[in-house]
Design brief:
The protein has ten helices and 47 strands. By secondary structure, it is mainly β. It is globular. Residues 1-43 and 122-142 have low confidence and may be disordered.
Length: 842
């Protein structure tokens, strides 16, 4: 079967030496992994030390300690708790004690898998075919359920490369921002200059900050963020506090068939904490942190979930207030820790289940953040820090973001299928101010015959967006599984850019009688799409998934302008519309319920749009529209679980062909969006977990990515073979945690992580001269440590982040008017930070 499958897909994929080598390497890794596959663990008497905790976590701890394969669905154990388990027991006796307060029991299949089911009920979850007939599709211990394909599936059985991160574990590790845990997903990189201003990069799919997003973000089943290039959709990425999250799912590779526009590199899905219909519970936490040589911060979080009407109506309420410490000083004003960030927010969710067939989820989420400065520092010509963690700015650079999301998710079980309607309404109000004195000041001083001239660039952005998805899905346990639906979105955004003069000595505005420049970027975006996929199980081991999506969008754009620099009032009006068709083909072969291989061919796209240009600029060669860019991802992968070794392994090899790339081009000094290049990104990704002894958990991941242009891109003066910006060839993460008993009622843990990010090339520079060499961002390594003690749900912990105090750079930018050359600035990661926290689960 493997030989014929490899031959089939090998003939379809356009052969090249690099791609063949990648696939052969991954095939070799998969073969080596398969040789190590083990049988199910045998029951025996063991010493168990499992605290009083949620039933879900208790079962996972039991699975790691016993070496048994345990399967259950999260909705089955949601809201349930288990008593502490201390002493020596057989697995059967231990499970009885863990399940004593629930309506559940454990059943062992002929193959040795332990299934958690309702007493007198059927197995939990759908049952895909298994050679021995014993497996179901519920999550084994050490795994989780993910919804990557808009169905609940086991992480290690879904034919998509996915990383799933528990919200509770992230909070325990004091990872409350995306930058704190991004390294836990192979191939995920961030380009940022402060909290709230971050571009997400996956698998090397990026050309820099000036164009639309290449990674989609979902909050539960609702897309979040702008669909256009005119509302800073690539930068204003939602970064939810992990206190409101149940899980973060990172899907690598294009997800356009099911998730639509802009998911070229992948998708991040924030899964929030659902309400409970049966059990009251919650968590409160307080923490304090301080940067070595910098400022201090704090975090306050509370979450409660409870049934309002037993088995019918439940609620979850989450609130948080956080201050992330600053560490950058302003060399001009003397201000300290200017990049301190304040974040607060919350979520209210209701779950209403009036009948067994009807489920209604309503939720509202808000998050506000504010900072007065960036993480940028002054750099020398060799890109080292000029004067430590300081920057040259004449005024504050605020960023104020106020995000809201309201959603209604209604599902009805028709028996033969489930119909689901997901409606969302989001608003985002943002204000960003930037000191552009070093960029425009020297030019304008000469033109206006002024001295001590500063330039403030401000841009308020207001965005409103509504989405609707109507989906019909078959049950998971049929030979033919299918789903199809319709998607609609409408977005209005108002983005205003203003250049205002001020006096660099006093900081006061200068009145010139008219603004230097005011320009509006007003956009209206409407999209309609139909999508669907089919999965057919040819045999108990082999299935094939095919899918497609067809999307149409219409955009209207208005750009009013005024000011001294443009000679008075003006207005440009433009429009565009385009269509995109996507496809997905995924064959999968399951050797058993613990080992599988798959191949995946999937496409993605980013919408095009209008350029605000006049007839003279069109005559110069500027296109009035930029087209959608598209890519196709060719991939093979392996996923395996080894219960007796208490280990998991995921491997993938990919080759991406990206065409008509949207890029900021330059023609005679005029900047505009165009389709200026083609590129390729090929690489390997690996992730593994291992619990070699009771209490010790190890995890590791690594990624190799080779992303480069395949044709010349004259608009940015880049030649064939040029590396795509901000993409490390190699990155890796290694984490460990050891849990141990201290006394009969007191437990402890120690843990840590080491993260490595390799060299990266800086951004393309439109208008740069021949021979221009882009900056190189050096590799860096960071280390985190943590330790804590627990008793009866109360936890006291200490932690340190970036132990070696690395000053790694994640972005280098030119402040020169030309867009390249000195003066240089760079965004520095957070230095060594110490912290302490206390929490209580109830």
């Amino acid at each position: 079967m493997r030989a014929s499958t490899g031959s089939k897909w090998g003939s379809t994929m356009k052969h090249s030496g690099t791609r063949t080598a990648l696939f052969r390497t991954t095939a070799l890794f998969g073969a080596i992994a398969l040789l190590g596959a083990a049988s199910a663990a045998q029951a025996q008497t063991r010493d168990y030390r499992i605290p009083d905790e949620s039933l879900s976590r208790s079962l996972k701890d039991f699975g790691r300690a016993s070496g048994l394969q345990i399967v259950f669905t999260e909705d089955l154990v949601l809201g349930k708790s288990s008593p502490a388990l201390t002493g020596e027991f057989t697995a059967q006796d231990a499970l009885k004690r863990i399940l004593v307060n629930s309506d559940l029991e454990a059943r062992t299949t002929p193959g040795g898998t332990v299934m958690i089911v309702r007493r007198g009920g059927e197995e939990a979850g759908p049952q895909p075919a298994d050679p021995a007939g014993q497996a179901d599709n519920s999550p084994p211990v050490g795994e989780v359920v993910v919804t990557a394909q808009k169905r609940s599936e086991r992480l290690l059985q879904v034919a998509v490369p996915v990383t799933a991160l528990s919200g509770a574990e992230l909070v325990r590790e004091h990872a409350v921002r995306l930058q704190d845990y991004a390294a836990a997903a192979p191939g995920l990189n961030l380009l940022s200059d402060r909290d709230g201003s971050t571009e997400i990069i996956m698998r090397g799919v990026t050309t820099g900050l000036e164009v639309g997003a290449t990674t989609s973000v979902y909050i539960d089943d609702s897309p979040y963020g702008s669909s256009t290039s005119y509302a800073l959709g690539a930068l204003l990425t939602p970064d939810l506090d992990t206190g409101v999250l149940s899980q973060v799912e990172v899907l690598r590779g294009p997800q356009g068939t099911l998730y639509g526009a802009s998911s070229l590199g992948g998708l991040i899905k924030y899964v929030t904490v659902p309400p409970s219909l049966t059990t009251f519970g919650g968590r409160v936490e307080a923490d304090y942190s301080a940067v070595d040589g910098g400022g201090s911060g704090y975090g306050l979080r509370a979450m409660v979930t409870a049934p309002l009407i037993a088995d019918t109506l439940g609620v979850t309420v989450s609130v948080f207030d956080r201050q992330d410490p600053g560490y950058i000083d302003n060399a001009v004003t003397g201000a300290k820790n200017v990049n301190v960030t304040k974040v607060d927010g919350g979520r209210l969710a209701l779950l209403f289940k009036p009948t067994d067939k009807l489920t209604i989820n309503l939720s509202g989420l808000f998050q506000d953040s504010y900072s007065d400065g960036t993480n940028d520092v002054d750099l020398n010509s060799n890109f080292s820090l000029t004067n430590g963690l300081t920057q040259t700015r004449y005024i504050a650079e605020p960023l104020d973001i106020r995000a809201r999301l309201y959603s209604a998710d209604i599902a009805y079980d028709l028996g033969v299928a489930t119909v689901r309607s997901i409606t969302s309404y989001q608003t985002e109000q943002a204000y960003q101010g930037t000191d552009e004195t070093q960029t425009y000041g020297p030019l304008l001083e000469a033109a206006l015959n002024l001295t001590d001239l500063g330039v403030n660039f401000s841009e308020p952005i207001n965005q409103n967006k509504i989405t609707e998805e109507l989906r019909l899905s078959s049950p998971n346990n049929s030979r033919l599984e299918w789903q199809g639906g319709f998607f609609f979105t409408h977005e209005d955004s108002r983005h205003v850019e203003t250049l205002s003069p001020f006096d660099t000595v006093t900081g006061q505005p200068i009145n010139l009688g008219a603004p230097l420049l005011t320009a509006g970027l007003f956009s209206h975006y409407t999209e309609y799409a139909g999508f669907g996929d089919l999965t057919y199980h040819f045999t108990p081991q082999f299935d094939l998934q095919v899918g497609g999506r067809y999307a149409y969008n219409d955009q209207q754009y208005q750009q009013p302008g005024n000011g001294i620099l443009v000679g008075g009032p003006s207005e440009l009006i433009a429009g565009s519309h385009d269509t995109s068709g996507l496809f997905l083909v995924t064959p999968r072969y399951q050797f058993n319920d613990q080992q599988m291989v798959y191949a995946r061919i999937a496409s993605g796209y980013r919408p095009g749009g209008p350029n605000a240009v006049d007839s003279a600029e069109v005559a110069q060669g500027v296109s009035p529209v930029f087209k959608p860019d598209t890519l196709v991802n060719y991939e093979i992968g392996y996923k395996g679980s080894f219960p007796s070794q208490r280990a998991t392994l995921q491997l993938s090899a990919f080759d991406i062909e990206w065409k008509n790339i949207q890029i900021l081009e330059n023609l005679g000094g005029l900047g505009f969006l165009g389709n200026g290049a083609n590129a390729r990104s090929a690489g390997l990704e690996a992730a593994a977990t291992w619990a070699p002894v009771h209490g010790l958990s190890l995890s590791a991941n690594a990624a190799y990515t080779d992303a480069y242009l395949t044709v010349n891109a004259p608009g940015v003066n880049a030649r064939q073979g040029a590396e795509l910006p901000e993409v490390p060839r190699f990155s890796a993460d290694l984490s460990a945690q050891y849990d141990f008993p201290i006394t009969g009622q007191l437990d402890g843990y120690v843990g840590g992580s080491v993260r490595y990010l390799g060299d990266r090339r800086g951004e393309f520079a439109a208008g740069s001269p021949p021979g221009y060499v882009r900056p190189t961002l050096g590799a860096y390594t960071t280390e985190d440590l943590r330790a804590g003690v627990l008793r009866d749900g109360v936890e006291l912990a200490v932690f340190v982040r970036n132990l070696s105090d690395s000053h790694g750079l994640n972005r280098i930018s030119s402040l020169n008017y030309a867009g390249y050359g000195a003066p240089w600035t760079g965004s520095v990661i957070q230095p060594r930070t110490f912290g302490v926290s206390i929490s209580d689960k109830f």
